[in-house]
Specification:
Number of strands: 13
Strand content: 15-25%
Order of helices and strands: HHEHEEEEHEEEHEEHEEEHH
CATH class of the largest domain: Alpha Beta
Largest sheet: 8 strands, mixed
Helix content: 25-40%
Number of domains: 2
Distance between the termini: 36 Å
CATH architecture of the largest domain: 2-Layer Sandwich
Length: 323
């Protein structure tokens, strides 16, 4: 069944803490361990309070989170996940460059930006575009972030001289981008028993609230073995919702791939990050971008990397949306 409001993902951890409390309290009668037990009890009670408070927050947040979208393709929001592929350290640098490019684009288009992780961003909003139909006529339209960016999923290949290359040789590296829509709860069937939750303390900047409470979330979907993490927010409830949304989107993508396979149109959105599985090549020496699906090229690479890629996205959308 679909996740319901009655499901409490914190219960297993609460039960474990209560059991540890009972075992620790039994040590109070031993003078040798009394002081140690008292300190441990304070720690366990503090963690238990965080989780019980989170249950209340969860109940309140879920009452406002069950408004399904009309259709997944109309989702205003989408997540972009960037991963380095073939090419070692240079591939990771290229992945970071791509993320910067899309962030600059989102800023220029006044999209709402949420950084969910070092490699995952969420973009929300609408974009005014000019699209050509098959007769070459141009019309103004408004597209959601997902509608315009969904064809960016795949392997992006770069040909350039890395900063670490002493002899000036051109290297080829790849990075993958996964573009997934925000999927409503009603669109994906997730059984609570198939979820394994882990709650831990976040690390890094954010102050005591982040570093001293179990706000970070690691969620495993047991049947598929998909694992997602969320630690960008200070509230465990917020990170839990982020993790669920990410998982729901990934499961939707799996179901979509299976549906396309049955229709004889199976196309992996991400592939295995190999150089041959590419949708686009960015050639620095020639200042050129080539989309291998549409056979189009643009000779303004430096400009596009600064986020001015709307013309490119419009061309790709028109070509692929009509196929």
């Amino acid at each position: 069944m679909i996740i319901t409001d009655m499901y409490n993902p914190y219960q297993i951890q609460i039960d474990r803490l209560n059991q540890q409390l009972e075992e620790t309290k039994a040590m109070l009668s031993d003078p040798q361990f009394k002081e140690l037990a008292q300190n441990e009890i304070l720690k366990l009670e503090s963690e238990l309070k965080v989780l019980t408070d989170a249950v209340g927050e969860l109940s309140a947040s879920q009452s406002n989170s069950n408004q399904p979208l009309e259709h997944t393709s109309q989702s205003k929001s989408c997540t972009l996940e960037f991963r380095g592929g073939a090419g070692g350290d240079e591939a990771k640098l290229w992945s970071d460059d791509l993320k910067r490019m899309y962030l600059r684009f989102a800023e220029q288009q006044n999209l709402k930006i949420s950084v969910l992780d070092d490699s995952i961003i969420k973009l929300s909003g609408h974009i005014e575009v000019e699209l050509k139909n098959q007769d070459g006529l141009v019309s103004g339209q408004t597209l959601t972030a997902y509608q315009l960016l969904k064809f960016e999923s795949g392997v992006h290949r770069v040909q350039r001289v890395p900063t670490t290359e002493a002899q000036g040789r051109i290297h080829t590296s790849t990075a993958t981008i996964a573009v997934l829509p925000e999927v409503p709860q009603s669109a994906i069937n997730i059984r609570p028993d198939d979820l394994e939750w882990q709650f831990m303390r976040s690390s890094g900047a954010g102050g005591q609230s982040v570093n001293k409470t179990s706000s970070a979330v690691r969620l495993t979907h047991i049947p598929s073995q998909l694992v997602v993490t969320a630690h960008s927010e200070r509230s465990q409830v917020q990170n839990r919702e982020i993790a669920l949304n990410l998982l729901r989107s990934q499961l939707w993508q799996i179901e979509e791939d299976e549906r396309l396979a049955k229709l004889g149109d199976a196309r992996s959105a991400i592939g295995r990050a190999q150089r041959s599985e590419k949708i686009r090549t960015y050639n620095y020496p020639q200042n050129r971008i080539t989309d291998h699906r549409t056979k189009q090229s643009w000779h303004n690479l430096s400009v596009v990397l600064e986020g001015q890629l709307l013309p490119l996205l419009q061309d790709v959308y028109c070509a692929l949306n009509q196929t």
